[in-house]
Design a protein that fits this description.
By secondary structure, this protein is largely without helices or strands. The protein has one helix at residues 3-8, and strands spanning 18-20, 44-46. It is built from one helix and two strands; from the N terminus they run αββ. 11% of the residues are buried. Bound molecules: zinc ion (ZN). Zinc ion is lined by residues 19, 29, 31-32, 34, 54.
Length: 56
Amino acid sequence: MSKRSTMLQVDVRRGGAVHLCPRAGTLVAACCGRGVLELPENDRITEDAGLVTCRR
Ligand SMILES: [Zn+2]
């Protein structure tokens, strides 16, 4: 699997927070406004708002 696809998958087993995918043209998580490149390594990004576990 490619690194790109891994970034978009949700793996709750790793224990990281799940953030909402950035809006088009931005590089910050839509849930909390944090830069996606600054998120902890275990955190994940999803396009499904129902899977987001991020606590602002
Ligand atoms: Zn977030």
